[in-house]
Amino acid sequence: MKPLFARILADAFIDLPPEVRALHSVAERRHFTGHAAVSASWLARKLLGFPKSGYNIAIGFILEVLPDGRERWVRDFGDDHYFTTILREHNGHLVECWAGFVDFEFVLQATPEGINWQLVGHRICGIPVPRFLWPSISAKESTENGKYQFSVEVTGLVSLAYAGWLEV
Fold this sequence. Notes:
The chain is mainly beta. It has helices spanning about 5-10, 20-25, 40-50; strands at about 30-40, 55-65, 70-75, 80-90, 95-100, 100-110, 115-125, 125-130, 135-145, 145-155, 160-165.
């Protein structure tokens, strides 16, 4: 079975920068390490396990491909600060499930620089959330100086941002 992002991005997958393509070509389970800057509200720290805000935080990222083709992502910010999401494909979109009942649906846009994630749907317990209640999410993957780069910013009831790099 093709990797999840290769299935979603189809022919555009091959044109991604090598570091971005390598991260999304994992066949089973792989542990990546890197560093990040984190800014998280009190609610993000309590509900999602984010650490206090800081710079140059050592991070771990586990990407595990499940037997049915879904992916489990574990983001580890050290000192027992981590969160896990499950990613799957639905109608050509990427769906990321948080805590087992909160789904965010994204269109992935491949660019020569990497991947931009655009939020196009949000559900809680399978029930669509009205658009005016959606958080604002900006998420990008890219490469710089041979390293995989990521940047995520969420504003709304739960506000957080994290950006950094991983060795791929």
